[in-house]
Write a structure and sequence with these properties.
By secondary structure, the chain is α/β, with parallel strands linked by helices. It has 17 helices and 16 strands. Helix 11 links the parallel strand 11 and strand 12.
Length: 429
Amino acid sequence: MQLSDYEKRILDGSESRLKQIAMENIVRYAEVLGAKELCEVTKATVFCGSHNYLSVCKSDDIHEVFSKMNLAVDEIVPFDQTYDNCYTQSCVAPCDQYEFQPFGQTKEFFTKNSQFLEQAKKAGVNIAGTCSPYLTGWLPIKGEHFVTTESGVTVSANSIWGAMGNSDGIEAAFWSSICGRTPKWGNHIEENRVGTHFIEVKTSVDSLLEWNLLGKAVGVKMPAGGIPVITGNFSNVNFNKLRSFCTMLAISSNCEMCHIVGITPEARTVEDAFKGKMVPEALVIDEQCLEVTYDSVCDQGAGDVDFVSLGCPHFDIDQIRRVAAYIKGKKVHPKVHFMLWTVYPIKCMADENGYTKIIEDAGGFIYTSTCPGTIGDVFLKKYKSFVFDSLKKAGSIKSESDGNVYFGDVNRCIDAAVKGKWEESDRWK
């Protein structure tokens, strides 16, 4: 393998033991993948906090847990340094940064999570606690190499901005954030980013809900390693629609990028996206595809609800503004827990602009740093019937819960929270 002088210096231990182990792991990773060289990483997201899976280490020593679980070594190596030229942010944590009682969590668990985050902060990780790092400045541009633990972010960064990265695991993202390198393979190489399948969208896709549905409808048509090239009438597209689409494409397939013609920097035209290769026969997405997708996650009929959740991916400030405008003057049903999820800096903006007060006056809550799925059973098991504005969350809860699960646009979700009931008229179409 071809290594730079910097990489050789890290590998021989001239810098620190932590960087050396990270580089050793990256080199082994590259060799397994068949990569001939490494590339510099300048953006990273890492999975920080006292996540439940870490408990298998049976230790309260943060550095021991990190060494064994993230570095894969038995020696205890302090996690105290990240790569200076890589802007690193934390992903969602297993609880809110400032509250734990609403989620049925213990003070001990909350304190342990805070300690994990504090150590990551000392190492140079910017504590954001979000599945949507772009909301807090994590914005890799065309040609910039990144690593992330969030599959939806991988698709978004590759497809919306033309940045370059793969769906690496939790451990590999940490190694890269420490030594600043990742194997140059997959989407880090230009010729590997060529479209493989042609998708024609022959139905109206306008609302955020429909972009969610489109993401899954495209994903289920894609084979392993596929890169769809997508055309359609997308005149009202915006970033929130695109990131919801990318999230659903990621979790319904193993796609790591797509080309949306006229939007993706590498796909001004269909021909651009296929880079001169023959354009294959189109796979068609029509209204029926979207309807089938919707029916697969939203239960039929009316029903009482006790949990309504908005914000997966995390809401931006404009989405919160719109929720506040719609719910102003209304009251959430007393049997309903109405929650909105975002990243802490965005909540501060919501506080400053009065949106938090409007939502709280209505009986709702804004939480940060995590989400219902990341918190898990300890929180969700007390609810019987769920409403989500996120196809991702509706689908995951539907597979895990015996209760009713409903999926709708934001306003219909708020209506259900106010009524304490999902009506058949709340369904899409």
